[in-house]
Structure formats: structure tokens, C-alpha cells
Amino acid sequence: MMKLIKVLKEQKPVLHNLMQFYIYEFSKYIPEIKLEANGAYKPFDLDPYWENSDLHPFFIMLENEYIGFSLIESKKDGNPNTIKEFFIIQKYSGKGLGKRAAIQLFQMFPGSWKVTQIAKNYPAQAFWRSVISDISKGNYTEYYDENRRSVQKFII
Q: I want to staple 71 with a disulfide (CB 3.0 to 4.6 A). Which of 5, 24, 54, 84 is the partner?
């Protein structure tokens, strides 16, 4: 059974470990991403996720196995909810678990949403279009921003 679990501050090292796989995947789209001298990718600054009540880190679990994560920013000051980062490990990609996790996240934070993908990440664009089309019943807008990122906006 797939479930979302809020990441506790003491679990931050586990999230950093999962994020290494995520950054590795992104390195094929962003050539500037390089390994550091210690053989790992530069870690994200995750501290704000336990300091700011608008930021929400989640593990995506299958039974008791970590299969991914998502970082969410809930809406504030008239801005929409956003998926800051979202990742399912390759072993579970294409099995519908990411879609189920995304739909649960959208339902946890009802209202307006904005989801963005980098220009060359065509698999992510196809994934998000499919999920968003399903949850919004096709009622969403899509455009490319000034950085050529694909952006979808919708309300649930």
C-alpha cells in the first residue's frame, strides 16, 4: 500500500539520501550538476521545511520501503500551492504509484496549484499532464515560462 508520510526533522538525513538519486536523474538534463569532492551531489538546503509552516516534506512509501519524496509549498499571499520537488525511484516508475501520490498531495492541499517541469524533461511533462488532466478533468492551463519550463495551473 502506497502512503505519504510527513518527514520529521530527525529524518532529514534519509531525505538527503533519497535526494541524491533525484539529483542524479536531473544531471542528465542539467549538465552543470556535478559531483562534489566527497563524491556526492551538493545537498539541498532542507532546513526551511521544518522552519516554515508553508513548506511540507513527504516521503512516498510502499509498505515500509522508501520509494520517493515530495516537497510541497502550500499557498500563501494569493500564490498557488506548488510541487517544489517530486521523485519516484526508477524501480517503481511507471507503476502508477507516483500518480497516486501526486493525487493524494493535491487532495491534501485543495485550491489552486502550479506545477513546473524543466524544458528537456519530457517524461516529467507527460507524467504531470496526465495526472493533472485526470484530477482536474481536463480543466487546466499550460504554458512555457521565460525559462522554457512547462507550467500547468489548475484548481481542485
A: 84
Q: 99-129 pLDDT, tens per residue?
A: 999 999 999 999 999 999 998 999 999 999 9
Q: How many domains does the chain have?
A: 1
Q: What is the C-alpha to C-alpha distance for residues 59 and 87, in angstroms, rounded to an integer?
A: 10
CATH of the domain at 13: 3.40.630.30
Q: Name the pLDDT band for 143 (thresholds 50, 70, 90).
A: very high
Q: Round to whole Å and give the CA distance between 130 and 59.
A: 22
Residue 76 CB partners (closer than 8 Å, separation 6+): 54
Q: Cβ contacts of residue 100 below 8 Å, gap of 6+?
A: 2
Cα–Cα distances in angstroms (integers) from residue 100 to residues 24, 43, 63, 106, 141, in the given order? 24, 27, 14, 10, 21
Give the predicted TM-score (pTM) of the model: 0.95
CA–CA dist 37, 91 (Å, integer)? 28
